[in-house]
Amino acid sequence: MEEKTGKLRVLASPDGREGSIKINQDALIYSATLTDGDRIVYPLTDGRNAYVRVAKGSVRVNGVLLHVGEGVKIRDEIDVTLEAVDNAEVLIFDLS
User: Fold this and answer.
1) Which pTM value belongs to this model?
2) What is the pLDDT of residue 6?
3) Residues 6+ away with beta carbon under 8 Å from 24
4) Which helix (H) or strand (E) holds 4?
């Protein structure tokens, strides 16, 4: 899917923004496809947490190397930095 290559695309949100699925939760779900060397920084609003899940390939998340099937919870950070090590597809869950 070209529209999420190298950038985040919102899949689900409370308000249905950008054509996403509308959910009745205080959460945002994003997806991105990254090629080797791609870097994305996702800012976290104060008091928010994130969970990142690697669906394909390998990616560094805030410096921690993750492979397909692995995930990490991020708390008390100002942003989430994704750096593709191998062609990757990731999901970010922005949670309260």
Assistant:
1) 0.91
2) 87
3) 14
4) none
